[in-house]
Each structure stands twice: as structure tokens, then as C-alpha cells.
Design a protein that fits this description.
This protein has helices at residues 5-14, 28-38, 66-73, 123-129, 147-157, 162-178, 215-224, 230-237, 256-268, 285-297, 315-326, 342-349, 360-370, and strands spanning 22-25, 41-45, 58-61, 77-78, 81-82, 86-90, 94-105, 110-116, 134-138, 181-192, 197-199, 203-206, 241-244, 249-253, 275-278, 303-310, 333-339, 355-356. By secondary structure, it is of the alpha+beta class. Helix 2 packs across helix 3 (66-73), helix 5 crosses helix 6 (162-178) and helix 10 crosses helix 11 (315-326).
């Protein structure tokens, strides 16, 4: 579950993390009034995807150009999501930018403190091109960040005010721990000209599986549903996972690991996935059928690749869900089906208009060829 920047910053302030003064606005007129109140300010699109800056969704505005700037930003669609609201935020005099986050490290099964003196940019690109600029500290969840770790982090960032940074990290960790986060991120964390550390941006992702014990976050989740991709909303209601992507090969897989491997093999074969879709183990024929319908409804999908393993869900039940939904589809379908009752599954699909593959790599190659 992702939170909007303005929602994340409200949580930050509750934990004592300084943020610029900001006003939420739903119309260009409200944004104009906000800039007149704050003076020169940043107008920031509020959408539940990254890449706002690259898409033109963040801009500095003055009282003279604010209405034009706000109207332009609120007319944008960023990664398929229309901009319905903006955060107008008071400008900050920046001396230096940093990156700071607490993330779940799945390898060590511990929280990971990540910091870098290269803030305000894509941290994944920094890690790829200049890994030496990334400072990491594994955190023991029984104790939280330790003083020596905070001192090492301050040294790695070149920050002399260890006390202020330590307070920032401890607050960020408290958010991560108490709200069941998978990510609590500040990018950039800025040092202002008057020596203050301020969270200029904020990102919080909550573990969906913990929402049952996070009543306040559950309420935000309900509020944010209208801001998500409609297909993602449909899938969430079916307790499946869907992430829209920019390609043209629609993918339906059971199991996140198999799904990621399928996406990789599509890329290796020269194709681009249209989505990540995990129907999860135990999905019945109804859920498989709905997954086919939802994936086919994506206008970017030119070919559908169904890569399923019969385990908790038997192959014949998977095949029934596919077969019952294929009628009326006008796009090619590639199916790789293996596991328990696979012979029964293939018997059900023998008269279906699908391309058959014996492996994930073969299925990816066929799908790319059909595109």
C-alpha cells in the first residue's frame, strides 16, 4: 500500500520530522491562493507512482505564473494516472541534498538503513553506477538503530550534526516499525542554508498483510483506491496482485517468483511486459478467469502469456478458468501449464485457440514473436 506524499508528510510531522509548510489543493484556483499565501512555492502532483519530476509533475511557481503552472500540472497523466490534486509547498533554500530510508531487506530479513550524499535523484541508478556512494546499516529489530550506526551514517554523509541526523533516523525507524512499513523514505533530505535538516519529499509503503492491525492506514487505503489504476483496484478486491507496466505482453502467473522470472525472460527475448499479475497459490477457476479478463482489458496488451504451475491450484481448474474466458478475446494467447493434473488441463484446452509452450523461456519467445 502506497501513501501520497502529503499523507506521508503528515505522518512525518507527527513523529517530529521537519517538513516544509504545505497546502493541499484540488483546483488551480486553490493552488493560486496557496502560492499567494506561501510566496514562491513548489507545486507537486500527488499521484501514487514515481517519476513525477521527470514527467513534469513538479515545478516552482510564483504568484505571477501559478495558475498557468497549476493548470498544466493538473492536466497531466503520469504513468496512466491523472493528476487530480497537488501539494503546494513553501520553497526551501537548499545547501545540500541527501537520500535516507529504512527499507525491508528480504535477504537478511531485517530493516536496512540506506543513506547517500547523492539525494534528489533515482537511488537505484546511483546504486548501479556509483555503489560506493551508498551507505548501508542492517538494523536489529530487537534494538533499533544503534548509536555507532548513526555515527557511521553521519560520517558517510559528511554531516557534522550527528544529533539532528540521529533524531531523524530514529523517527523514520519508528514510523517503519510501528506502521508495518516495507519502506519509509526521504528523498531528498535537505540541509538548508540555516543548517536545518528537512524532509523535502516523503514516501511510505505499508505492508498490505498488516493492514488488519493498522486501522488508520486502512482508512487511508480506502481513501486512496480512487487514485489507483482501475485495473489494480479490481485485482486488489480479488486478493491478487497487479502492477501496470509500459509494454504490450500481458502476463498472468501464479506465484511472485515465477512472475518475476517470466518478466525477465520476456525482456531477454526482446519483449516488454504490459503488467505483473500474480493470481497467487490456491486461485480457483473463477479467479483465473477474472485475471484473464482484467489483463485483456488493458488496451496496451497485444499478446497474453499465461504461465501457471499446478500446485495448490490444480492444472485442470486453471485450464477451466482459461477456457471459459477465452471466447470473445481478439488477442493471441500463449499458455504454459505444468504440474498436478496437467494432462487433464491440456485436455480441457485442446480445442482452445492458444499457443502451447513447454517452458517459461519458450512461452516468452512465442509471445514476443506474436507481438
Amino acid at each position: 500500500m502506497k501513501l501520497h506524499e502529503y499523507q506521508s508528510k503528515e505522518i512525518f510531522r507527527g513523529y517530529g520530522i521537519p517538513t516544509p509548510e504545505g497546502i493541499m489543493c484540488n483546483t488551480p484556483e486553490e493552488a493560486s491562493n496557496a502560492v499567494r499565501q506561501l510566496g514562491t512555492a513548489a507545486i507537486k502532483a500527488q499521484v501514487l507512482v514515481g517519476g513525477r519530476g521527470k514527467a513534469g509533475g513538479i515545478a516552482i511557481a510564483t504568484p505571477e505564473n501559478v495558475k498557468e503552472t497549476a493548470s498544466r500540472i493538473m492536466g497531466l497523466t503520469i504513468k496512466g494516472l491523472p493528476v487530480a490534486k497537488v501539494l503546494v509547498e513553501q520553497s526551501v533554500d537548499i545547501k545540500q541534498e541527501f537520500y535516507l530510508s529504512i527499507a525491508l531487506d528480504r535477504t537478511s530479513r531485517r530493516p536496512l538503513l540506506i543513506a547517500s550524499a547523492s539525494g534528489g535523484v533515482d537511488i537505484e541508478e546511483v546504486a548501479r553506477t556509483s555503489p560506493g556512494l551508498i551507505h548501508k546499516e542492517l538494523i536489529d529489530p530487537k534494538t533499533g538503530p544503534q548509536p555507532e550506526q548513526l555515527e557511521h551514517t553521519a560520517t558517510g554523509l559528511g554531516i557534522s550534526d550527528v544529533t539532528s541526523l540521529s533524531g531523524m533516523v530514529n523517527s523514520l525507524y519508528a514510523i517503519y516499525d510501528e506502521l508495518d512499513c516495507t519502506l519509509a523514505e526521504i528523498n531528498p533530505l535537505v540541509l538548508t542554508l540555516d543548517g536545518q535538516l528537512v524532509a523535502l519529499d516523503a514516501k511510505i509503503n505499508i505492508d498490505d498483510n498488516a493492514l488488519f492491525r493498522q486501522s488508520a492506514m486502512q482508512q487511508l487505503y480506502e481513501e486512496n483506491l480512487e487514485d489507483l489504476d482501475p485495473l489494480e483496484v479490481q485485482v486488489k478486491k480479488l486478493d491478487m496482485s497487479y502492477v501496470a507496466m509500459d509494454g504490450d505482453i500481458g502476463c498472468i502467473v501464479n506465484g511472485a517468483g515465477l512472475a518475476l522470472a517470466t518478466l525477465d525472460m520476456i525482456s531477454q527475448a526482446g519483449g516488454t511486459p504490459a503488467n505483473f499479475m500474480d493470481v497467487r497459490g490456491g486461485a480457483d477457476a473463477f479467479h483465473v478467469g477474472r485475471a484473464v479478463e482484467i489483463t485483456a482489458s488493458n488496451p496496451r496488451t497485444k499478446v497474453m502469456l499465461i504461465n501457471m504451475f499446478g500446485g495448490l491450484t490444480l492444472c485442470d481448474e486453471i485450464a477451466e478458468g482459461i477456457h471459459d474466458t477465452l471466447q470473445g478475446l481478439d488477442i493471441p494467447v500463449v499458455v504454459r501449464l505444468t504440474g498436478t493434473n496437467q494432462e487433464k488441463g491440456w485436455e480441457i484446452l485442446k480445442d482452445a485457440n492458444v499457443s502451447v509452450a513447454g517452458s517459461t523461456a519458450e512461452a516468452a519467445g512465442i509471445a514476443v514473436g506474436l507481438v
